[in-house]
Automatic annotation (TrEMBL):
This is Pentatricopeptide repeat-containing protein. It comes from the Eukaryota. Keywords: Repeat, Transit peptide. Gene3D superfamilies: Tetratricopeptide repeat domain. One of its GO terms (biological process) is RNA modification. GO terms for molecular function: RNA binding. Pfam families: PPR, PPR_1. InterPro entries: PPR_At4g14850-like_plant, PPR_rpt, TPR-like_helical_dom_sf. PPR repeats lie at residues 25-55, 59-89. The keyword GTP-binding does not apply.
Length: 139
């Protein structure tokens, strides 16, 4: 229901429903973060994201939603800060791809290539997924 309200642009209604939920799952937190990001309200998205961390209800999906929101808004500095805050074990292939795409869309192919090179050394499985899963290479 949260996702449907968000998709319909009814973010305030999604928030009201979320606030009435007696038990919030990581999926409900992720959905609300995504709703705010898609609406362009990164401030509210960040507040919900940080609250999900404090509640212990975040997942890599929460991080990816917030990073994607920053990337799509051209806020690569904020996206990179969150990415760095994740540490070395939490980022997944979606995280790496989101960061690389953000750099490319922002006109910074050098940073995208550097991110790809870092992903290669961070995890060979991520590197293989990034380079072969999308049929592209960094050059």
């Amino acid at each position: 229901m949260l996702a449907a309200l968000g998709a319909a642009g009814r973010v305030a209604d999604a928030r009201a429903l979320f606030d009435r939920m007696p038990c919030r799952s990581p999926a409900s937190w992720n959905t609300l973060v995504t709703c705010y990001c898609k609406a362009g309200d990164l401030g509210s998205a960040r507040l919900v994201f940080e609250a999900s961390l404090r509640a212990g209800s975040s997942s890599v999906v929460s991080w990816n939603a917030m990073i994607d929101g920053y990337c799509k808004a051209g806020r690569m500095d904020a996206a990179r800060d969150l990415f760095d805050r994740m540490g070395s074990t939490l980022p997944d292939v979606v995280t790496w791809n989101t960061m690389m795409a953000g750099y490319l869309h922002g006109g910074n192919p050098t940073a995208a290539i550097a991110m790809w090179a870092t992903s290669h050394w961070a995890s060979r499985s991520i590197s293989r997924s990034v380079s072969s899963g999308h049929g592209s290479t960094p050059c």
